[in-house]
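Question (not urgent): is this output format expected?
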Amino acid sequence: MKIKIYLLAILLILTSCSGVKKYLIKPEEFKGWTLTNWEVYKSEEEFKSVLKDNFNMYNGYGLTRIINQVLTSPDFKIIKIEMYFTEDKAGARGLYQRYRSFSQIPIGEEGSDSPGFVSFYRDNCSEKIIAQRNLLGKNLYLKKAAKWLDKKLSPH
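Got this back:
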C-alpha cells in the first residue's frame, strides 16, 4: 500500500512539472551556466506572495501562472528570469508595454533592453530577464537567454 501511495505521489509531481520543464533553460542550451533555482506560482495567493505591492497591477492582466528561474555561471554571474503567463495575448502585451520605451530588439513579438534588463512578449507570455550579479552592462548574456526562451515559446 505504501508503494502505491509513493508511486502516486511521484506521478503527481512529474505531471505537475511537465508543463513547466519545457520553459526551463537547460545546461546544454546555456553552456557553463546552471539552473540554480526555479519556482512556479499558479494561484492568486501565490501571486500575492511573490508580487507583493505589484499584485493588483499584474493581476489586472489575467495572470494564470508565473515561472521564475535563476541561472548562475561558474564565475558567479546571476540571471533571474521571470515568465508571466496570462489568459491571452492582450494580457501579455499589456504587461510588456511598460518596457517599450527601452531600446527595441528583435526578440519575441516585441522586445526591448536596457543595461541589466531584457523584456519581451510572445503569445500569452511576458518575460523579464534581469542581471542579478556581475552582469551589469553585459546584456549579451541576457539576450542569449531571451532568445532561448523565445524559441521555447514559439509555436514552430
